[in-house]
Write a structure and sequence with these properties.
The chain is α+β, with helices and mostly antiparallel strands and 123 residues long. The protein has 1 helix and 8 strands, in the order αββββββββ. A hairpin with a 2-residue loop joins strand 7 and strand 8.
Length: 123
């Protein structure tokens, strides 16, 4: 009987932890999406490049003729940017997955393929 009560306690604790995780994501996940909306730039050899995340998942590229973002979404701690790549007179679909290391209303730090990039929000 004691073994059964112990399993019941473990299952109950696991359910409570899962519900708390869902609640925290619901409360704070939305604010991350609100923080990401805006125009983000970084300095690339003296030229400000970056992207814009708009409402309804619409994205745009800033100062980059090769990669043209057209949509974005967030999944957990990742910003996913999708678009078209223009190379050698051909057009390719692409998807960039940027792992968010830091995000607030003014700064975004991401990692992609082991490389860290810091963006600042201009609007």
């Amino acid at each position: 009987m004691a073994k059964r009560n112990g399993i019941h306690t473990i299952v109950t604790a696991a359910v409570i932890i899962a519900l708390l995780a869902i609640l925290v994501n619901a409360l704070f996940g939305g604010s991350r999406k609100r923080d990401i909306i805006g125009t983000w730039v970084t300095d690339a050899d003296g030229i400000e490049t970056g992207f814009q995340c708009g409402n309804q998942g619409i994205a745009a590229t800033i100062n980059n003729a090769t990669y043209q973002y057209n949509s974005w979404e967030m999944r957990r701690n990742a910003l996913i940017l999708k678009g078209k790549e223009f190379r050698n007179r051909r057009v390719y679909d692409f998807c960039d997955t940027l792992v968010i290391k830091r995000l607030n209303s003014k700064q975004l730090t991401v990692e992609q393929n082991g490389e860290t990039t810091e963006y600042h929000k201009i609007r």
